[in-house]
Amino acid sequence: MNNKGISPYVIKRLPRYYRFLGELSNSGIKRISSAELSRRMGLTASQIRQDLNCFGGFGQQGYGYNTDILRDEIGAILGVDRPKKAILIGLGNLGKAITLHLNFEEKGFSLIGLFDSKESLVGNVIRNIPIRSTNTLDDFCRENKPEAAILCIPKTAVPDIADHLIKLGIKGFLNFSHYDLALKYEGIVVENVHFGDNLMTLSYNIKNMDK
To answer: How confident is the model at residue 84, as a pLDDT?
Structure first.
């Protein structure tokens, strides 16, 4: 199925479906209606049906959804069943925390390399992965062919290293800097993560709760 043209808002909801269905399955719930799923997720049943129908629809009238099958189908749509190789650059506090606590394998990625420009960090091992010097990126990428890079580096360092990584075959970025890569690189997939923006959105919503 050609998924081009599907609303990005639908795509953004798919990981949430995947997560909720996993929790349901782990709780022993093997079948659920769109109405019950909508109640648990805070969406309308119509919205859920519309979202899933973008990919062919997976329910049976009078039965609902098999939670395991639907989760597997959504996982396949998201590509989590075929892990992509990823590298992480920048092993400061944020980079270390992401390396230690994010379950890459369950999210569709295999973390294969850690890099930092600080020689004092090179040689340290996190999650059985040695930290390498960024000077070794060329040889590593040519040999291992990672598709994604997670950037936990200062904004000023992003343009040069992003240019270099794209030339080395990187197709997508999870970008924790405040440099908006999506504005510069067409044809490259970028997910920008702005904790400050999230906090300000939270501030706005709290401020306007009672209005």
So the answer is: 95
